[in-house]
Amino acid sequence: MAMNRLLRKLSLTLAILLWVAAVLYFLVLNKYKVSDLETEGPEAKLSVEEWDDLLDLFEEKRYLGVRRWRPGEDPYKLYAFNQRESERVPSNRVLRDTRDHRCTALHYGPDLPSTSIVITFHNEARSTLLRTIRSILNRTPIHLIQEIILVDDFSKDPNDCLLLTKLPKVKCLRNYRREGLIRSRVKGADSAQAQVLTFLDSHCEVNKDWLLPLLQRLKEDPTCVVSPVIDIINMDTFAYVAASSELHGEISFRVWMCGGSLEIIPCSRVGHVFRKKHPYTFPEGNANTYIKNTKRTAEVWMDEFKHLYYSARPAARGRDFGDVQSRKDLRERLSCKPFRWYLDYIYPQLKVPDESALRSGPIRQRQNCLESHQVEGQELPMLTLGPCSGTELDQNPDQVWTYTNEQQIRQGRFCLSLSRTTFSTFQVLLEPCGDRGGRQSWQRSGKQVEHVLSRLCLDSEATVEGAELVINPCDRLAFTQRWEVPFS
Ligand SMILES: [Mn+2]
């Protein structure tokens, strides 16, 4: 007993010692890194005096004094990040160098091409927008910046953009109606003077030497599209946190199919404020814009695989997606390869659903269909029966279900699942797909749909609100257990 207590005491002491050592190590490391930053080469940086002069002209305090957070206000209301913290963080703060230590030993060619940096924004917080620009001016050899082009996508206050043109290299373009991200970027690109274009978000902070390895790689191979590793700026505290060095960028199949390549350059680091939602609305409504954009991509680029997109996004069926002829022409003109080539040679690790096992469509019981139903304020959609609606060509997305290789009955990210609560284990509802405990496995058995583990059958029971889905002992005579399904 005493031995036990002693051991516990010892291990606790050890844990505390380790913790103290770790904190000290981190502090020392931090200090080292900070002094490292301060001794950056003179050509890379404006002197303090030069900066002071420019900022006197620019009047930073005055710029930041508009629409400031006030005590009592919700600091997340305007921008969906903590505005109060953002305003506390100086525009020229010191960042920890998050690169692998081996990056510091790299040398870059003296004749790198210069770049035009395009930053688009719509009602961005002034504090984050300014910090984005100052971090660029502070951490980039000035001769490599041809210009910083701000594209103001019809923000409420034109001065958010205009006043910043007092900073070196900064230009401002403004849309006189809301155009959206890509048209704004194209506008910036059209007016750019440099050969290399760099697109940045409007709430970033670039880290030490961020641009050099990107330009170096482009010089070696001009067909590349390159990206930094994106570090995380915490939306609550604005702490700058290193992203894991495991690379997980967007793999743009369009670039690969048309003879380019997309590379994430590990020695280039840029921080970005990740948010849980957009603080602004899209020109055609958030869901509509998303569906339209992804549907256009599928229609132009995915060839015979586009039905997989529709299985995953049934809401896109029958939706208008505008004219894509010019995009198809572009694909033709650039002699881009088929989507299948991309799957075979660039991303063979990607598991493409086996077509014979993937079937989708409505699940019918007489004239009624299995249907999902969004309820205001509720996280999970309700599962119910409703009159079948929609046609083969124009299906009702709430009534389209996909049977997957994992024997799930799926719609979007939700799957038919047995209830988790003990007092109603027989209820069937919608939950996020992915349960491995067998609550989401179903198979067809004649006219019935059987829950694989319990061997009970999918059934419906009338309630005051309509119908509830349950499982019951299988009974071939019960009409509520007879289903027409799109899979066998
Ligand atoms: Mn962003």
From TrEMBL:
<keyword id="KW-0430">Lectin</keyword>
<comment type="pathway">
    <text>Protein modification; protein glycosylation.</text>
</comment>
<keyword id="KW-0464">Manganese</keyword>
<keyword id="KW-0333">Golgi apparatus</keyword>
<comment type="similarity">
    <text>Belongs to the glycosyltransferase 2 family. GalNAc-T subfamily.</text>
</comment>
<dbReference type="GO" id="GO:0004653">
    <property type="term" value="F:polypeptide N-acetylgalactosaminyltransferase activity"/>
</dbReference>
<dbReference type="GO" id="GO:0006493">
    <property type="term" value="P:protein O-linked glycosylation"/>
</dbReference>
<dbReference type="Pfam" id="PF00535">
    <property type="entry name" value="Glycos_transf_2"/>
</dbReference>
<keyword id="KW-0328">Glycosyltransferase</keyword>
<protein>
    <recommendedName>
        <fullName>Polypeptide N-acetylgalactosaminyltransferase</fullName>
        <ecNumber>2.4.1.-</ecNumber>
    </recommendedName>
</protein>
<dbReference type="InterPro" id="IPR029044">
    <property type="entry name" value="Nucleotide-diphossugar_trans"/>
</dbReference>
<feature type="domain" description="Ricin B lectin">
    <location>
        <begin position="355"/>
        <end position="486"/>
    </location>
</feature>
<dbReference type="GO" id="GO:0000139">
    <property type="term" value="C:Golgi membrane"/>
</dbReference>
<dbReference type="InterPro" id="IPR000772">
    <property type="entry name" value="Ricin_B_lectin"/>
</dbReference>
<dbReference type="Pfam" id="PF00652">
    <property type="entry name" value="Ricin_B_lectin"/>
</dbReference>
<dbReference type="InterPro" id="IPR035992">
    <property type="entry name" value="Ricin_B-like_lectins"/>
</dbReference>
<keyword id="KW-0808">Transferase</keyword>
<keyword id="KW-1015">Disulfide bond</keyword>
<dbReference type="InterPro" id="IPR001173">
    <property type="entry name" value="Glyco_trans_2-like"/>
</dbReference>
<dbReference type="GO" id="GO:0030246">
    <property type="term" value="F:carbohydrate binding"/>
</dbReference>
